[in-house]
Every structure is written in structure tokens, then in C-alpha cells.
Amino acid sequence: MTDTTEGLGAERLRDRIAAELDRTRARTALLTDVVDEAELVRQHSPLMSPLVWDLAHVGNQEELWLVRDVGGRDPVRRDIDDLYDAFKQPRKDRPALPLLPPGEARAYVSTVRAKVYDLLDVIRFTDRPLVTDGFAFGMVVQHEQQHDETMLATHQLRSGPAVLHAPPPPEPRATVGGEVLVPAGPFTMGTDTDPWALDNERPAHRVDLPAYVIDAAPVTNGQFRRFIADGGYDDPRWWSTAGWAHRIEADLTAPMHWRRDGDGWAYRRFGRWSAVRDDEPVVHVGWYEAQAYATWAGKRLPTEAEWEKAARWDPATGRSRRYPWGDDDPTAAHANLDQRHLWPAPVGAYPDGASPLGVHQLMGDVWEWTSTAFRGHPGFTAFPYREYSEVFFGDDYRVLRGGSFGTDRAACRGTFRNWDYPIRRQIFSGFRCARDARPEESQP
Fold it and tell me: In terms of domains, do 91 and 223 share one?
């Protein structure tokens, strides 16, 4: 989306934005229409908001940024701004707030969207940086899609019968395993050219890395089960001091949503129990668990830069691609995205999505923990507000990359950065391992 000249280019951009807004709202409606009003207003976990809060919140952000800021229009509901301010209202406290009831919340987001469509008809995409290439609209789309993934995680936490349905992911089409050597040398990390890239993805900068080895696929359930069977959760040798303290306090014994099933394990997926499948990427593990597994396996978690080089660097040209497979937008053949399926695909299901080096399933399936604390790239500038990224910088959060089956393609690319606390497991998180290359491996 780079043609921003007024005229035909602007009309194409308007059509693209309208399509993204429609597609995104359809997903929000699906996630909130499949449960009754009592389920919408209930808090299913103190880690999450009631679904009705997320619904009105995405409308409020759309009103703040597009209706009021970009459009300069009169407020729709200024009286609810504080209720839906994520910084002012901790998740655990949101059920006690005087939230809009479901019908009123739906009417509110519909009214806001109608005003946004009116604005889209007349907006000039050359007025100021906030609207160049439709950035503010793209930011709102990505924000709503991120909350759609959050709402999907809330559905995974809710009790009761299944209400979400989707076909299973594809079966493997390639045999994938082992490790991939990434040669020493520089690559370009981040972006200056992706029009909807967020501030923490910018600016593009050169990073020079020594040779390293990275897993060709995410760690699978079968591999993680061997860690459990070997007493991995009971042996402090594999855990950091902070990780072991959390393991004890939280009584961690397996990934979230797993339970013993005879001699094996079962996994609850959106209200349905099924046997843990060994060839699927493990999901719902925190950073401390991922770190402990990697130590047990004689490896480590990749740094964020290592993950991105493995995902984007093309050794034939030396350039960094937008996605592992190239610059074209993801399709159903490339990655398990868009909530098309409701759990990770088995390893080898997406050979078309592999990187030039042969690293698979870097996009979709599971968010992948890295060892890196969340900070800005060199030369970072907050845009359009500090609260999107900068206030989270520091050692409290670890970076996750690549998206999950619950992530939309609008909020997933080779430079997209997610972050969370190391203890978080309700997110659709997994990992792959890396290690330093041995001298004999790094020789050309």
C-alpha cells in the first residue's frame, strides 16, 4: 500500500482500507455474537477483560483516533473515555465498571464506524504524517485485530460448551526437523518502508551477527513431553532463579490447558478436549518454561535479531524480505493465520512459507518467545503516541515474534513485534531454540 497520490491511487487506498475495516469488524462480531449477554459481561479470567469491554474499547479507540483526531469531528461518547482507557483501568477491575451493556456497545461501535466511513470518503492522504498511506486507519485495523486475538484467548479461558468452530489445519506436506545454520554477517532489521509498520518496528538498521544455528521448526508437543517426562518441571538445574521461583509459586507442571489422560496428555481447545498431538507446536507456555526447556535441550532461546534474520534475510540477494517467503501478503498456503484454524498446524504443513534458509512456520501457529527484553530499535521515535510502545520498554517484558493462529495477517509481518511478561501463558505462545554455531559449522 504505497500509492498515496490523490486520484486513482487514493481511491484504491480507500477501497483497501474499507475492505480491511469490514474484514476486521466481521471477526469482532463473530467473537462477540457467539455467546449470550451474560457471557459477554462475565470476566472469564482475571487476566482478561469481559468481552463486552474489548468490544466497546475498539470502538472508543477508533473514535479517538479517526473520528476526533483525523476527522476533527464532534465526539460520539466523550463520557466513556475513562472507562475504556486501558492504562487507567486494570483488567481485573473492569467487570466492576459501569460498562456499556452489550446492545449499547454494539450500537456505539456501529455509530463510530459509520462516521469513519464518511471520513474515508473525503480524507486526503497527503495532509500530515498520521494519515500518509492511510497509517491511522491501518493502526486502528491492527489495534482491533490485536483485540480480536485477545478475545480469542478469552474464549479459550471460558468454561462451558464450545461455541467457536473452524476446520482443522492442514496436514504436513514436508518433512521438517533438525537445525539450520545461519551464516555470520550483517542484515537489515526493522523497516523504513512498510507503510503500516508501527513505531517499534522502525527504523531499519544494520545488525551484524555471528554464525548461529536455529531450529527448523517450533518446538513440538512431542519434544516438550520428553522434557516433562524427564522431570523438567521438577529439576531446578534447568530454570533461572526467577523462573524456578515462579514455577514453584504457580505450581507449573505442564503447558496451560493440558491434563493427564491415562499414560498421555489431553489439551482443551475452546471447550473441546483432544489428545495432545506430538507433531504440533507446543502452545500456552510462558517464557520461563521455554527458557527451561532450551537449557535442558543444551540450547537457548534465540535473540530477537536472530529470529528476524532467520525469518527475513535472503542469502542470494542480501536483502531482508517482508515475510519469510517474500514480499507478497500471506495466503492460506503460507501460514496458519487469520483464525482460519483454532490450533497450531503440525510441523511441515506450510512448506510454501519457509524462509530461503529453510526455516519453517516462522509466521502463524504460535507466537515465539525470544530472549530479548522489549526496547526500541536504535533511533526509535514514538509515533503517534508514547503509550503504544515506549512506556513498555525495559526488562519487564520479553519480545515474541511471528504471530499465531489467532493473529490476523494485518498485524503480522517479519518486522512485527509483540511483547509480554515472562509468566504469561494464556497467550498463544510457543518457541523454537537456537545455539551458537560451533567453529566447524561456521566455516564456509
Answer: no
Domain span at 247: 165-444
Beta bridge partners of 264: 261
Sheet holding 367-373, edge to edge: 417-420, 398-401, 367-373, 429-430
Q: Which cell goes with 175?
A: 518433512
Pair 302, 403 in one domain: yes
Is the Cβ–Cβ distance between 280 and 224 less than 8 Å?
A: no
Dihedral (Cα; 404, 406, 411, 413), 10-degree rounding: 30
**Amino acid making up residue 50:** P
| C-beta separation of 185 from 397 below 8 A | no
pLDDT in tens, 237-285: 999 999 999 999 999 999 999 999 999 999 999 999 999 999 999 999 9
Q: Are 374 and 393 in contact (CB under 8 A)?
A: yes
Q: What are phi and psi of 347, to 5 degrees?
A: -60, 135
Calculated CA dihedral for residues 327, 332, 335, 340, nearest 10 degrees: 130
- Tell me the three cell numbers of residue 326: 517474500
Distance between CA 6 and CA 46 in Å, rounded? Answer: 48
Question: Beta strand 417-420 with 272-275: parallel, antiparallel or unpaired?
Answer: unpaired
Is the whole model's pTM more than 0.85, yes or no?
A: yes
Q: Give yes or no for a cis peptide into 203 (omega within 30° of 0).
A: yes
